[in-house]
Fold this protein.
Amino acid sequence: MQRLALVALLLVACSAESAPDPTAASIPASAPPKSDRSIILISLDTLRADYIGLYGYRKHRTSPTLDAFARESVVFDASMVTEPVTLTSHMGLMTGLYPHHHGVSDTSKLPAGIETLAERLRGFGYATRAHADGGYMRPRWGIDRGFDHYRGNQRRGARRVFKEPRTWIREHQDRPFFLFLHVYDAHNVGKGPRYVAKRPFRGLFSRRLRSRSTAAVVKSMVPHFLATDRDKAFIRATYAESVRDLDAQIRDLFAFLKRRGVWDDALIILWSDHGEGLFDHGTFGHDQVFEHTARSVLMMKVPGVEGGRRVASVVREIDILPTILELVGAPPVEGIDGRSFAALLRGEATHEGFAITKLTRSTKRLFSLRTDTHRYIWDGNTNESFLFDHRVDPDETQNLSPSGGDLEAGLHVRVLAWMEEYDSTMATRAQAQPAVPLDAETRDALEALGYLN
């Protein structure tokens, strides 16, 4: 016990010493990057990694385009997010900060003084543009900061979002640009487990699985825990159809980039902000911190870097900002939580990675620590714990807690130290930053995506 207490004190001290100052995270505009490489960052909202072929999915052919892209890219097998929620996950992507350091929530926007990736790149002379699909990507939270043009108030779908910037690309492809695209096509529609692909993919995998009870489950007319195995099979198949539909839209976007001569020289990143439960661990959505929801898709095509490689080490969405900046030769950023993994991309290093994922929405208070080999979860409401060994149990079906010995004890101490920092920081923010209620239009947009219910 004395040894664990000492470890706890050391971890808390280290946490306090290393806590970043987000307002100090700035780059002088007088230090331009060494590369004029254009950057295309594509966010595929709610795309669960293990439902595409390159991550091992074999039940249906959902991802021919993504699988081909993997052969030209570096694929990250253990990319994690800091919260499986669209708003906070994207803010982590754009700021390199944990949720309690960027301070964004349903009712609070990005504070002044925190620079986004778009602001940094625009300061280096990049043209910046974003086309997002509404919902939590509406500009009211500050996600639009740094973009010369940001379109994100309405939900339009990948068919439109991926076509909207084509004229702009033609006009700007002779100078470095940063283009951010976001789509909800793999997200559920409404508050139930309803996933809707467009023709010709609607019904492609699910048409023989519908049962009498399926419609009631999909529309949430009956509790989700009453779903039969056949209902669950149908819902999973409709999700797979949405993934296949999204893959086709990515194919068309890639074809355009190749025709325009943008493909070869651009840094192209495909990422998802979280996964989806699909009834694994008891829920269909992403209100959990298990692997199925905390893990994200991450593939990066980097000119000059050999494709077809896999990286096993844990990385986080907050690491993407400093990685992009290093890849274009920009100076490192001080005062953020994220750390560049550019050396991993180039195959020059390996490291023991870790990621903290939290979920503190509604009545949930969940904290998870993922290392390269294990995941530990602590429920702050029930004091329930979970420990999984990913070397033998990648689907997290065998809970080793509370018999995890010194390993579990050490992970528990790390989680508690992080929770203490989170609670302290959020309490300070709540006093300094009054909540701004959602307007009716935003509330309607979020309810259409199954939030706020």
About this structure: The first strand starts at residue 39 and ends at 44. The chain has one domain: 35-352+440-448. The chain has a mean pLDDT of 90.
